[in-house]
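Sequence only, no structure available. Ideas?
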Amino acid sequence: MSEEKHRTQTGQKGIVGALGGYLRWDIASGLRAYIVGFTGINFSGQRIVVDIWPHGGRQSGDEELDGRRLKSIGLIAPLGTRMTIMTAATPDNWEVLPWRCIQVLEGHTFDSVQFPGFVGAQVPDLDFVDSPSALRTDPDFNITYPQVERFEDGEGWTFGRVGAMTLKTNIRSIRVDKV
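Reply:
I predicted one. C-alpha cells follow.
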C-alpha cells in the first residue's frame, strides 16, 4: 500500500503509558470501522472502543486501547476489512513473531447491534479459534487459529502465526486495512 494511502500512528497514552506501554497503529485511509477490545477473555473486563475514521485516523474514549491488557477483540466493519494484531513493536520482520489476522468476510460475520449497518468478526480469546460470532471461547475445544508462514499465504476469516509468547497481553501493533 502506498505511503499516501497509509498512515502510521503511535499512541503513547494508555493504562500503562507511564510504564512504557504503547500500541503502534497502522491504519489505511478510506476505512470506517470500530475495534472493541476487552481486558478479559470472553469479552469481559474493561471495554474500550476505538473508532477508525476514513482519513486514516482513530479516536478512543477516555482510555486508549492497551495491548498489554488486551485478551479479546472484535472488529466491526464493512465486508472486506481486516485487522492484524502483532506482538512486534515495529513493522520490520513482524512476521517472525506471533500475530493474527481477523477479516470481515461474507459468511463469517455477525450483524452488529451496537453499530447498526455494520457487520463484524470477533475473537473471545486471542490465542484460540472460535466462530467469528462466538461470545465465549469453548474451553473443551481450545485449538489455535490456522497457521501460515507468510501473511500472503493466509486464507479464511482468521489466520496467523504462534510463537513462544501468547497474543494475550502482548499486542504491540495493530494494522487495519482492506483485504
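Residues 1-20 have pLDDT under 50 and may be disordered.
Hope that gets you unstuck.
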